[in-house]
């Protein structure tokens, strides 16, 4: 992926909740120092002109409010699911921001995505802080990938990262946890971000729910985790773990990484 003009994509649906997503996008683009792109899709040509005009008006308004921010707009035919890799491959998006109430279609798109999705709701100061990041760590190799995005918040927003370690009983799972923990410690040491390790009560199967519980109790600014690596028939029947987390998250921002795809990353040399 090209490192030129990397963007945060804000999904606009032209409802009242869209304003909340835009405010979060502005906050993130400001401290990450990358372009903010207001994004919408249209189902057919008859609706394109109206939606495009609304999008351009909103883009102009944001530019007028914060002239230091690079703001653009993008409208594509189809759905977010159809365009999720277009925005990353062709338009250099590194993050998608959307409202938590859009999680049903958002999670479907995420499973095809090379870039993480951030689900948000609310614009009170505590919803926009992003100063305390909770990072549940389990036995999966994919869970290590979450450290990269956690480090961005640590480096560019001076956030403190709380790594919640799963508690395993079996020797093989303990070995995997030890490897992942060693990786996290070395990675955060090298990136020089503020972090601490916390021992969880739950195994890898329950550490995500415990992470949500701790994040909400501590009034943290962000929960980061890797989505499901596999989707079983049972998952389809009762819902994926990430879907359950998003339903309970309330106004806590939740950033989810797709472990099934190569992760595109920010170009830090561009900062």
Which descriptors would you attach to this protein?
9 helices; 2 domains; about 270 residues; Rossmann fold; alpha/beta; single chain; 10-stranded mixed β-sheet
What share of residues is helical?
A: 40-55%
| CATH-derived architecture of the largest domain | 3-Layer(aba) Sandwich
Query: What is the SS-derived class?
Result: alpha/beta
- Identify low-pLDDT runs: none
Helix-strand string: EHEHEHEHEEHEHEHEHHE
Could you name the CATH topology of the largest domain? Rossmann fold
**Spatial strand arrangement across the major sheet:** 3-2-1-4-5-10-9-6-7-8
CATH class label of the largest domain: Alpha Beta
The general outline is globular
What's the gist of this structure?
The protein is α/β, with parallel strands linked by helices and 271 residues long.
Description:
- With 271 residues, the chain is an alpha/beta fold.
- It has two domains: 7-120, Rossmann fold, CATH 3.40.50.620; 125-254, 3-Layer(aba) Sandwich (Rossmann fold).
- It is built from nine helices and ten strands.
- It has helices at 18-32, 45-65, 80-89, 103-110, 146-157, 171-191, 207-217, 233-238, 241-248; strands at 7-11, 35-42, 71-77, 93-99, 117-120, 132-137, 160-165, 195-199, 222-226, 254-257.
- Strands 3-2-1-4-5-10-9-6-7-8 form a ten-stranded mixed beta sheet, sandwiched between helices.
- Helix 4 links the parallel strand 4 (93-99) and strand 5.
- Helix 3 crosses helix 4 (103-110) and helix 5 packs parallel to helix 6.
């Amino acid at each position: 992926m090209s490192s030129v003009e990397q963007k945060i994509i804000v999904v606009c649906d032209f409802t009242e909740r869209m304003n909340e997503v835009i405010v979060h996008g502005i906050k993130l683009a400001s401290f990450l120092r990358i372009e903010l792109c207001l994004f919408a899709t249209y189902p057919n040509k008859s609706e394109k002109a109206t939606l495009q005009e609304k999008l351009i008006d909103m883009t102009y308004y944001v530019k007028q409010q914060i002239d230091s921010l690079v703001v653009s707009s993008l409208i594509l035919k189809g759905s977010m699911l159809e365009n999720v890799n277009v925005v990353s491959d062709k338009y250099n998006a590194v993050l998608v921001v959307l409202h938590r109430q859009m999680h049903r279609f958002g999670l479907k798109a995420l499973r095809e995505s090379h870039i993480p999705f951030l689900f948000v709701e609310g614009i009170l100061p505590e919803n926009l802080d992003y100063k305390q990041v909770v990072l549940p760590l389990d036995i999966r190799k994919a869970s290590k990938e979450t450290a990269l995005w956690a480090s961005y918040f640590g480096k560019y927003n001076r956030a403190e990262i709380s790594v919640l370690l799963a508690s395993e009983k079996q020797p093989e799972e303990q070995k995997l946890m030890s490897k992942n923990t060693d990786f996290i410690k070395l990675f955060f040491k090298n990136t020089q971000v503020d972090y601490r390790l916390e021992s969880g009560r739950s195994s890898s199967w329950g550490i995500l729910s415990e992470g949500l519980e701790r994040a909400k109790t501590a009034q943290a600014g962000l929960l980061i985790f890797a989505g499901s690596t596999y989707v079983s028939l049972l998952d389809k029947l009762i819902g994926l773990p990430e879907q359950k987390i998003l339903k309970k998250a309330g106004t806590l921002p939740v950033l989810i990484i797709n472990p099934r795809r190569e992760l595109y990353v920010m170009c830090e040399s561009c900062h």
